[in-house]
Amino acid sequence: MTQSREEFEARLRRIGAERYHDKHPFHDLLHSGGCTPTQVRAWVINRYAYQSAIPMKDAAFMSRVEDPALRRAWRSRIEDHDGTDTNEGGIERWLRLADAVGLDRDYVASKRGILPATTFAVEAYVRFVRDKTLLEAVAASLTELFAPKIHAARIEGLLANYAFADDSALSYFRNRLSEAPKDVAFGLKWVLDHADTAEKQDAAAEALIFKTNVLWAQLDAISAAYVAPGRIPPGGWQPDTHLIAVAA
Questions:
Q1: Which residue intervals define the domain Thiaminase-2/PQQC in the entry (predicted)?
Q2: Number of Cβ atoms within 10 Å of the Cβ of 230
Q3: Given this model, what pLDDT does residue 83 score?
Q4: Residue 145 domain-assigned (yes or no)
Q5: Residue 238 belongs to a domain
Q6: Which parts of 124-173 are beta strand (E)?
Q7: Cα dist. 34→26, 39, 98 in Å?
Q8: At what angle are helices 198-226 and 116-131 packed, to 10 degrees?
Q9: Is the separation of the CB atoms in 104 and 243 below 8 Å?
């Protein structure tokens, strides 16, 4: 049975309440100041794989869109991450975070130390957006509904607990506080407009669940490798390597 617009939106929001990665124990550890420098650096390195793939995911989506209005609306997502002449972009801001935690940014950008499970999760997301219906691809982006809350908590927790944290280091998260609501306002309306049958609503909901799994799997990988007892798989970043000197 097809749900009303209000019922379906509530269903999507329940998915976030139950499955978004703000519930993952690693985020509790990070935001409370419980992470070691090694664990923070491992998170920064592995999360870069996801950050750098976002504009590729969005470009893959746009290559399939025939509606110029939808392409115009979606284009800003690529610019938000890749940057423009007047906006350095989210990828550059993430590399400034890498600088702040003492990592060699060229090493981070090379993605050589990414964990295998992180790579699989990120590549699965890009393939999903490239291969699934446009409705499913847009619905998968709706984790942005829940992002501002975690970004605000992250800013507060990192500033309170880590010496590296300052406005420059955390600029990625501050910018996403304004970028994510803009993106999700469009994406949510588009999904609600186009999920007009029970089958389409089910597909959109499953797409959002898939995306929460992508985010959760990345934190599982970091926890398994770098949180005690920890077992770093072959190819994963090794602690105390590829570091730079950071001013105290």
A1: 10-220
A2: 14
A3: 94
A4: yes
A5: no
A6: none
A7: 9, 9, 19
A8: 160
A9: yes
pLDDT confidence band for 179 (50 / 70 / 90) = confident
CA angle 231, 236, 237 (to 5 degrees): 105
Is 208 within 8 Å of 137 (Cβ atoms)?
no
Whichever domain contains 109, its CATH number is: 1.20.910.10
**What are the tens digits of pLDDT across the range 47-105?**
999 999 999 999 999 999 999 999 999 999 999 999 999 999 999 999 999 999 999 99
Long-range CB pairs of 235-242 (<8 Å, 24+ gap) are 235/112, 235/113, 235/114, 235/115, 235/116, 236/113, 236/114, 236/115, 236/116, 237/41, 237/42, 237/45, 237/113, 237/114, 238/113, 239/38, 239/41, 239/42, 240/38, 242/103, 242/104, 242/107, 242/108, 242/113
Does 248 have pLDDT greater than 80?
A: no
Q: pTM for the full model?
A: 0.95
For residue 198, what are the domain limits?
5-226
- Distance CA(29)–CA(41), nearest Å, equals 14
